[in-house]
Each structure stands twice: as structure tokens, then as C-alpha cells.
Amino acid sequence: MAEQAPSDSPETPRWLDDLRPGAEGEGFFEKNLRHSLMFIKRPGDRLLVTFDNLSNVNDDSVMREPWGFKFAQDSALSHLGVMAHVSDWYRDADIIARFQNLARDGFFDGYARVVFAGVSMGGYAALSLSAVVPGAHVIAINPQSTLDPDLVPWETRYENRRRQDWTLPLGDGAALTSGVSLPL
Q1: Which of 70, 73, 115, 170 is least enclosed, having the fewest CB within 10 Å?
Q2: Which pLDDT tens digit goes with each residue over 150-164?
Q3: What is the enclosing helix (H) or strand (E) of 58?
């Protein structure tokens, strides 16, 4: 029996299979110091937008996937996954502006349903950033509505997160939910 030679090709994340040259998928990958965005367009009229939670922040492995990637892939949903590289609760002017620009440029148009989803820190981002897409649906598991010390002075669990810039737009997820659908 012949022995197989070890593969010389490096491991790559599954989402790269959709975006590599010659692949059938459409999309993009953008990375900056604080966050990365991965988008894969799949046939259909539903878009899932996901946000990493605090436990993903220190994952710097080459195989890292956005939270919910496998679910989106298995369900044939288009997927915009935001990967956090810092525990900033998405209180970053660049990520807020990126979502506002995506909405302004019509990125979310054409989808019958846009669902924002996340857990804890990612749940906060799902609540707050969904406000740029009127009529979006939100699945926020164990979210914090805000860590703004002026609004929640009793919240002391996430001390360094309270030091983020809560004066930026979209700072209180609860105040922003009037335009979103919260599924039962």
C-alpha cells in the first residue's frame, strides 16, 4: 500500500473556498486592526449578519471563521460575518461607519430578510448595528444593551469595556430596537 505524501498546501478556512480565485462564490474579505468582515453571497433572498462574542477575540488561528459561518453555509444563506480582534464591544467609529456605508450603498437591499445575530458582546452589536437596516430581524442571545456608564452605572462586570467610546452613534441597543423585528 502506497503511503500518501503530506500535503504541502497550508490549511485554509472553509470560507476561503468560496472566495478563492476560480471559485463559484462572490464576496469579500476586509481586515483592519480591530475587526474583519467576511461576506459570501449565496443564492437566495436571506442574509445573515453575525458578530463574534468575547470568547472569539483571542482566536488568531488561520482556520478562524465568523460566528455562525457553518450554520449560514449549511442553510445556504448569504453571510456577512464580523470577526472581532479586540474586546471593544464594537464601539469603533470605523465599524459603525462601515455598516452605515453598506446601508447607504444598498448592500442590504434585495434581501427579503436580513437577520442580525450574536451572543453577549455580539448580541450587543446585533442590536445596535441592525438599526442601520430598517425592518431587520435580530437574534440577540444574552446581550448587553449598553455598557455606557452614564446609562448603567451599576454594571461592573466588564470594566475595561465601559472605557470604550459610548458617545459614538448607536450606543444603546435597547433604544434602537423600535425599527427591528425580534423573533419569538
Answers
A1: 70
A2: 656 666 666 666 566
A3: none
Cβ(118)–Cβ(55) below 8 Å: no
Alpha-carbon dihedral sign for residues 136, 172, 157, 81: positive
- Answer for the pair 37, 28: CB distance below 8 angstroms, yes or no: yes
Alpha helices for 9-163 (secondary structure H): 14-19, 69-74, 93-104, 121-129, 159-162
What's the pTM value of the predicted model, to 2 decimals? 0.80
Q: In which element (H, E) is residue 30 found?
A: strand 26-31
Fold assignment, 28-179: Rossmann fold (3.40.50)
Q: Residue 17 carries which side chain, given as an amino acid letter?
A: D
**Cα separation of 24 and 42, whole Å?**
10
Q: Where are the domains of the chain?
A: 28-179
Q: What is the pLDDT of residues 51-92, one digit of tens each?
A: 998 888 878 878 889 999 999 999 999 999 999 998 877 888
